[in-house]
Design brief:
The complex is a heterodimer of chains A (301) and B (456). Chain A has 13 helices and 2 strands, in the order αββαααααααααααα. Chain A has 301 residues and is mainly α. Chain A has 2 domains: 52 residues, no CATH class; 228 residues, MetI-like (MetI-like fold). In chain A, helix 5 packs across helix 11. Chain B is of the alpha/beta class and 456 residues long. Chain B has 2 domains: 171 residues, Periplasmic binding protein-like II (D-Maltodextrin-Binding Protein, domain 2); 242 residues, Periplasmic binding protein-like II (D-Maltodextrin-Binding Protein, domain 2). Chain B has 20 helices and 11 strands. In chain B, the strands form 3 sheets. In chain B, strands 3, 6, 7, 8, 9, 10 and 11 form a 7-stranded mixed beta sheet that branches. The longest helix of chain B has 30 residues. Chain B is globular and about 85 Å long. Classes of the chains: A mainly alpha (301), B alpha/beta (456). At the A-B interface, helix 1 and helix 12 of A face helix 1, helix 3, helix 12, helix 18 and helix 19 of B.
Chain lengths: 301, 456
């Protein structure tokens, strides 16, 4: 049975709603509203200017037979599948190195985090120069150090996604900081106990560090997948989806349809499919998490 | 305690009420003054002049307030369309970005201006506008915008590089039968050089930036039916006709040859490298460029001399290049169409046009101001004033309005054919194979475009 609220609690509740009302209004108008509207538009022919007209599931049907939809899905999955695990592995390794008791740790932490602070467009322009096949520093180094004639990177169908994956590693600073915090939260007595039992560094890493870090890994994995499916700036600024659709990321394709071709209905349908994909992936990862994520506070029954 | 809560509620209501009241008061004070908005692109040259013209206009028209909304180029169309969707369209807009006035007209976004032009014919003097410019603002016989500026196609060249190679400058005569594509390529070869002797070309002879539909024109074909340019949506490409198909096939082959056979043009990769240093012609690494006159917009480097020439014949007796007209349109749902027209008239008047030409690199749509334009650019050029006049007369005579402005849903079609022809520059596929696939894909895009609208 619910107990009656005291006058004090009631008043507090009223204040709560009063104070949070700007956020509720903002959420309903600027977030929930457009989401609901886009669901409606996804069943319409809508060019933004003329009123939408209902076409049923035509947009979803078109999607299945649209080779560019599949191409954008392929490009995005390829990027996601390589860049997310690679980013996690690399940032974990760097975090562990930074977690050793060394001098100037804060300096290193700052240096590794710094790239994450710079805006997406500036980073994109910087990397365009790095990848420049003729003047770029990357091909220069490849030639000087290994005598390898570097590929055309962003202008090559085969190398454009690998190039963007390399570039995505630039932003791992954010994950490093999270991992560092996680690593520093692991009680040292676990390592000490393992050492007494004769465990070597690798055993300690596999049996203590990884399980203790698994909740953090779960978080970065989910965020990484969501972010990788929403890649836009790099493709928009650096390649415009080319050459020959080789970097046509999913969100770029949505943008093109919505704001360049003014097929807002089709773009809405694409967006809802993206939403369902991310939802399904997140759901799968969460469902699988009891198998590999260890929470200290939950006891096994 | 209840009182305190009431007090807080009262305060919130008071704040909201005062916000509403103050906005009411402001809008009331505007009520007698018609507020006209104009949507412009964020061009560092154009915006200050526009501001100046608006200031002059506002001070001489006490009942009208013109206000410019300036957005980056990439956001121009999204802004225009979303303002429209919100029910507050800009009163005046133009095809500053990817959508053309035909895209607007098919969606019934712009007024027909013929009545207004006739009413004010003494002030407007429509005969003063280039006929091609008026045609480039006409939708199925109706004038949909008043042109305020043009861009024209020609050959722009670095005269210093010609001098260094000891070559004669390109002719300014558009009907010179001897000025052919092969001659052009011949000159380009002499201008292409490996200056530092590292085996790589540092200086290219020619960059032809013309789009596919312009290439088809130049080689005597067409990608679209003549009606399409009048504002009727395309139903398919006209490349099923052998004449058109062969024209584009040859044109594409010649373009590929420029890069891989004659080696006088940079590969797209190299071109991007050059473009990262600035507009290609201005870098000094390029002899000639066939493009719109934006190649010579802004300050030209002083260490080189420059020139303008006629575009050569690709095939005998065929000459058609692209003209780019910027017509100012009035939103059909504008609350102040008359006031908007007043401002358009002002902006298209000779005095405002002169100001615009003095401070930007744009050429006016008014023929009477061509001499002012020549006066302005001739100190930079090796051409004589007569030569410049000859180039300009040809550029405005042997031309047709940019398909981006006149073909419905052009941007989507262009993005499809640009992507589909990428394999040509990656040397992956032959011209015929690429062209055949491209035709199928563009026709699909045309179909999608048609499904997307209620065709008027």
């Amino acid at each position: 049975m619910k107990t009656r609220m005291s006058p004090m609690a009631k008043r507090e509740e009223r204040y709560f709603y009063l104070c949070i009302s700007p956020w509720i209004a903002g959420f309903l108008i600027f977030t929930a509203g457009p989401i609901v509207a886009s669901l409606f538009f996804s069943f319409c022919n809508y060019d933004v200017v003329t009123p939408p007209n209902w076409v049923g599931i035509q947009n979803y049907k078109r999607l299945i037979s649209d080779p560019l939809f599949w191409q954008s899905l392929k490009v995005t999955s390829y990027f996601s599948l390589v860049s997310v695990p690679l980013g996690i592995a690399l940032s974990l390794i760097i975090a562990i190195l930074l977690n050793q008791n060394i001098k100037g740790l804060t300096w290193f932490r700052t240096i590794y985090y710094m790239p994450s602070v710079i805006s997406g467009v500036a980073v994109a322009l910087l990397w365009m120069w790095i990848f420049n096949p003729e003047f770029g520093v990357l091909n220069f180094l490849l030639w000087k150090l290994f005598h390898i004639q570097g590929p055309a990177w962003l202008m090559s169908e085969e190398w454009v996604i690998p190039a963007l994956i390399i570039m995505s590693l630039w932003g791992i600073g954010g994950d490093i900081v999270i991992y560092l915090a996680g690593l520093q939260g692991i009680p040292t007595e676990l390592y000490e106990a393992a050492e007494i039992d004769g465990a070597n560094s690798f055993n300690k890493f596999l049996n203590i560090t990884i399980p203790m870090m698994s909740p953090v890994l779960l978080f970065t994995l989910i965020m990484g997948i969501i972010n990788s499916f929403q890649v836009f700036t790099q493709a928009y600024v650096m390649t415009r989806g080319g050459p020959h659709y080789a970097s046509l990321f999913y969100v770029l394709y949505i943008y093109q349809n919505a704001f360049q071709f003014f097929s807002m209905g089709y773009a809405s349908a694409l967006s809802w499919i993206l939403f369902l994909i991310i939802l399904a992936l997140t759901f799968l990862i969460f469902k699988s998490s009891p198998l590999w994520v260890y929470y200290e506070s939950t006891r096994e029954r | 305690m209840v009182r305190r809560f009431r007090g807080m509620c009262f305060l919130v209501v008071l704040v909201i009420a005062s916000v509403i009241l103050s906005s009411l008061v402001t809008s009331l004070s505007y009520a007698e003054k018609a507020k006209v908005t104009i949507l412009w692109r964020d061009d560092p040259d154009e915006v200050p002049v526009l501001d100046e013209i608006i200031k002059d206009f506002n001070s001489t028209h006490p009942n009208i307030t013109v206000e410019a909304i300036v957005v980056p180029y990439d956001e121009y169309d999204p802004k225009l369309f979303s303002m429209w969707a919100a029910g507050t369209p800009p009163d005046i807009f133009w095809c500053a970005a990817e959508s053309g006035y035909v895209d607007h007209a098919i969606r019934d976004m712009n007024f027909t201006l013929d009545t207004l032009v006739n009413r004010d014919k003494n002030v407007i003097n429509i005969k003063d506008f280039y006929p091609a410019a008026i045609e480039g603002a006409t939708f199925r016989g109706d004038l949909k915008g008043l042109p305020f500026a043009q861009a024209y196609t020609a050959i722009f060249y670095n005269a210093t590089l010609f001098d260094d190679a000891g070559i004669k400058y390109p002719t300014t005569n558009w009907t010179d039968k001897n000025w052919t594509w092969d001659k052009l390529v011949g000159i380009a070869k002499k201008l292409t050089k490996d200056i530092n002797g590292d085996g790589k070309i540092d200086q290219y002879g020619l960059l032809d930036t013309r789009d596919l539909f312009e290439m088809a024109w130049a080689w005597g074909g067409d990608m679209f039916d003549p009606n399409v340019y009048k504002g009727y949506p395309p139903e398919k490409l006209t490349l099923d006709k052998p004449k058109n198909y062969n024209a584009l096939l040859t044109a594409l082959q010649k373009r590929v040859d420029l890069v891989y056979k004659d080696k006088v043009s940079p590969t797209p990769a190299t071109q991007q490298v050059i473009e990262q240093m600035g507009p290609p012609l201005k870098t000094g690494r390029l002899g000639m460029v066939i493009s719109g006159d934006w190649s010579i917009w802004g300050a030209m480097p002083k260490n080189y001399k420059w020139g303008i020439g006629a575009v050569p014949y690709s095939v005998p007796n065929v000459k058609k290049v692209c003209l780019y007209t910027d017509p100012l349109e009035i939103a059909r749902t504008s609350k102040h169409p008359n006031e908007a027209w007043e401002f358009i008239k002002y902006l298209a008047s000779p005095s405002a046009q002169k100001k615009l030409m003095e401070k930007t690199s744009r050429i006016s749509s008014r023929q009477s101001l061509r001499k002012n334009y020549i006066e302005k650019i001739s100190p930079l050029m090796v051409n004589t004033k007569q030569g410049l006049d000859q180039v300009l007369s040809g550029a405005f005579k042997y031309c047709q309005e940019d398909a981006e402005h006149t073909v419905f849903g052009f941007y989507k079609l262009q993005s499809v054919w640009t992507s589909e022809t990428d394999p040509l520059w990656l040397e992956k596929k032959g011209v015929k194979e690429v062209l055949d696939t491209m035709i199928v894909k563009v026709n699909q895009a045309i179909e999608e475009n048609l499904k997307g609208i209620v065709v008027r």
